[in-house]
Design a protein that fits this description.
It holds the Pfam family Formyl_trans_N. Its EC number is 2.1.2.9. It is an enzyme of class 2 (transferase). The chain is of the alpha/beta class. It has two domains: 206 residues, Rossmann fold (3-Layer(aba) Sandwich), CATH 3.40.50; 93 residues, Methionyl-tRNA Fmet Formyltransferase, Chain A, domain 2 (Roll), CATH 3.10.25.10. The protein is 25% helix and 26% strand. The protein contains eight helices and 17 strands. It has a seven-stranded mixed β-sheet, sandwiched between helices. Strands 12, 13, 14, 15, 16 and 17 form a six-stranded antiparallel β-sheet that branches. A hairpin with a 4-residue loop joins β15 and β16. The N and C termini lie far apart (55 Å). The model has no long low-confidence stretch (mean pLDDT 95).
Length: 319
């Protein structure tokens, strides 16, 4: 089968690798334009582009696929390119651009999306982070036949994956990327016989894009909720707290049962400071000061100068 692959980050690159390794004829790749990255903010190709070029696959990087939008010329060029590639099926994974109807209709077999959740739970941009934040017991991968809606298409394959109690977005990303890469290869081996199952109407949730402003820790929230959110936001955007106007990042905590006014320093343990929450408390076990590296709180908490019985700041330093 002639395939076009559309994707951008490492999650998608692993699926592209698997398709190429399995011997599928990937005739072209769509990926996001190169973006500034790193300390020098130099333009950097996406992981998918890097893998495609290494495999000798043609790459297109339109800024938009809307024929009537701001980058209509880009979209027109992309349409001509797709037509010349003449794919039978497009495989899509974390591409980052909305596929308009003309793209969905172009391949005779349509577009197959690798989505990192058990649809219809966690439709949208950040299913990996939101399932951890919500305390879900499991997630997984859904291979979905795309339609014009937001992750509303019929399901081709669903496979669950249990979440570990210490799961972070980074660890779950890697497990789901490997799972998605394996499943898409297996699905194409069985493609003519794979059923189409409409998504259930019940249980729909939306995984909103992560906003870095969500990093600010609200100590009024329960300790268990704060702990989950920190794992969900590792590696981005982490957790942010402040003491007397000096901000610092919180990466890991341990839930305890201490009680006190939310945000108050309850104890200064050898492992790290214990902070009261809306319900229970947390011991900060991994921190990062501005300009420094993340590491054990025991090595960093002293330099913060936290005072027993006093509260952390209730607002971010920039507020």
């Amino acid at each position: 089968m002639r395939l076009v692959f559309a994707g951008t980050p490492e999650f998608a690159a692993q699926a592209l690798d698997a398709l190429v390794l399995a011997g599928h004829k990937v005739v072209g790749v769509l990926t996001q334009p190169d973006r500034p990255a790193g300390r020098g903010m130099k333009l950097q190709a996406s992981p998918v582009k890097q893998r495609a070029l290494a495999a000798g696959i043609a790459v297109a990087q339109p800024q938009s696929l809307r024929l009537d939008g701001r980058f209509a010329a880009d979209a027109q060029a992309a349409r001509a390119q797709l037509q010349s590639w003449a794919p039978e099926l497009m495989v899509v994974a974390a591409y980052g651009l909305i596929l308009p109807q003309w793209v969905l209709d172009l391949p005779p077999q349509g577009c197959l999306n690798i989505h990192a959740s058990l649809l219809p739970r966690w439709r949208g941009a950040a299913p990996i982070q939101r399932c951890i934040e919500a305390g879900d017991a499991q997630t997984g991968v859904t291979l979905m036949q795309m339609d014009a809606g937001l992750d509303t298409g019929a399901m081709r394959w669903v496979e669950a994956l249990p979440l570990a109690t210490d799961e972070t977005a980074a660890s779950l990303h890697d497990r789901l990327a490997a799972q998605g890469a394996r499943l898409v290869v297996q699905a194409l081996e069985r493609w003519p016989t794979l059923p189409l199952e409409p998504q259930p109407e019940q249980g729909v949730t939306y995984a909103a894009k992560i906003d870095k402003r969500e990093a600010w820790i609200d100590w009024q929230r329960p300790a268990a909720e704060i702990e989950r959110r920190l794992r969900a936001f590792d590696p981005f955007p982490g957790g942010q707290a402040a003491w007397r106007g000096a901000g610092f990042k919180v990466w890991r905590v341990r839930v305890e049962s201490g009680q006190g006014a939310p945000g108050t320093v309850l104890a200064l343990h050898a492992e790290g400071p214990e902070i009261a929450c809306g319900d229970g408390s947390v011991v900060l076990t991994e921190l990062q000061r501005p300009g420094g590296r993340r590491g054990p709180a025991a090595l960093q908490a002293t330099s913060l100068g936290l005072v027993l019985g006093e509260p952390l700041d209730s607002q971010p330093p920039e507020a």
